[in-house]
Amino acid sequence: MKLIQGALLAILILVLGLTALSCKKKSNPVAPGGGANVTIDIVADMGSGAFGSSPVTVNKGQTVAWRNTRGITHTATADGGAWDTGGIANGSTSAAIQMNTAGSFPYHCAIHPSMTATLVVNP
Description:
Blueprint: H1 2-22, E1 38-42, E2 56-59, E3 63-68, E4 77-78, E5 97-98, E6 103-108, E7 116-122
Parallel strand pairs: 1-3, 2-7
Antiparallel strand pairs: 3-5, 4-6, 6-7
């Protein structure tokens, strides 16, 4: 009987140990903003410097997200319609957008059209 109790105790300890290991905090490979290769900060509410440094250069296939560090909602909308983040609330980051076409892409905030910048995608 003691042998069975010992075996059950060992199994219980093993199960609890494995459960504890599997509950450890894991890193999230898709952080807010979609885990983009490049994140562009929105740093002002008006003007050509609103999207931080411009132009920002990425390579074809990389992903880009925009992080709103301002108090009001903004967008990042390509002038030619290649992408549109939709509204990005204060403190939020847009979904990552994969840049699959090389070129120079002027963009703006659809809510505040004076906010402009350029994204360059290298081949």
